[in-house]
Amino acid sequence: MSVTVLGIVTLLAIVGVWLVRREWTQFVVGATVAFPQTAGIVVAGNGFPLFYLAIVLLLVLAFPRMLLGLSRFGRAPAGRQERLVPDLIGVALVAWAAVISVAGPRIFEGMRVFAPELGVDAQVVNMATLHPSIGNLAQVGYVGMGVLFLLLAGRLFPVDARLIGSGLWVAIVLAAVRIVAEPWWPHALLQNMPGFNYATPERLSGTFYEPSVLGLYLTAAAGYFGARLLWSGAAGRVASVLALALVGIDFVKNGSGTALLGLAILFGLAGVVALVRQLRSGRFGVRPLAIIAAVVVVGGALSQIPIILQFTVGSAASKADSDSFIARTASNVRSGQIFLESTGLGIGLGGNRPSSLFMLVLSCLGVIGIALVGALVFLALRRALRFRAIEPGGWALAGVLVAAIVAVPDLSTPAIWIGLAACLYPVVAPVRSVTRTEIATSAT
Q1: What are phi and psi of 207, to 5 degrees?
Q2: Domain residues of the chain, as ranges?
Q3: Of 121, 158, 112, 116, nearest to 133 (Cα)?
Q4: N or C: which end of the chain has fewer CB within 10 A?
Q5: What is the DSSP letter of 344?
Q6: HSE (CB half, 13 Å, CA atoms) of 334?
Q7: How confident is the model at residue 302 (pLDDT cuts 50, 70, 90)?
Q8: CA 325: distance to chain centroid?
């Protein structure tokens, strides 16, 4: 076993904030999420990501308090019961994932699948066959640790929307740094996960192993900082404008279809939410600043129509005509067939890897898994839309999920778990729904 440089930094940072200022723990944990494909520890040729290393260390530091917290299962720090339902859903998800991931590969052994350890392109005409493997247990372990983080967040240390915001800041800043510092980029430090084929510098991938993963974070960052721009004070708005500028720069250099389609869907969702709020409020109005901003954006867009068409429509068309797009589509279609052939049970985590998070959960965890994951997401987003303080975290989570459904099929992605925690477990006072007056104010 060997600990990497960033693994040591993570260990020291977690211990430091735990002993000196525990409320900062969420920022350190959030920062690790910007390095999901960077190893903190390497054991027998297998890398352990920084986020999960941080969770293990927190468990060691807080073992006595953790036992006390779990003995009060379902209770929030202030004694309220908001945690009970998501806690139970999370535990049920791990239990079902463990059962089907052990039984599925044995019940449906020999079924044609897209094996996670092999490339999608190579398996279109020569699919692998399902069989039990250590990968099944590894994927269950990652999901179990993600749910464990949900159980501990807000109990061991306070969390709020900045939990995911800190990770997004690190991701977009380092991606922008890489644009100008590629010749000096510390590849050996950051790209050290065994078995990963990291992308070449032709398209920006930031701290991630391929551009589509950076596209996921850019989509989440657009949602997070866009909401912060609306709800923050003067200083927060300045910071949000700076962050959105970095998102735009990274987006152009990233050239990812994931970010392109993810942002389009996220903007559409934002428009629907704004319209619903307006209708519920019974009045319509727009801030003068919003009108000015819209005029500037539309005017700038009209002046750059040829470039925009080439970058968006042209990029999408080239993606659709590529062999990669055909392979990804084939993997998703086959995943739907696997769901049907397994009678809706799924074949277990680690048994199949399509090109969409939705199809991954559907084919691996079946209808029960889809229902449990969907329930967690629904509770998180509903709570985020009720409370303005955590709404940026809700839009970040929505961005993560939209982009993951488009092209990042990985339920162990740390951004999913900190996004859920940032929405589900902040202490918001007073605990009540947003009133019609507040909805009208926020919409205008």
Answers
A1: -90, 10
A2: 76-443
A3: 116
A4: N
A5: T
A6: 25
A7: very low
A8: 22
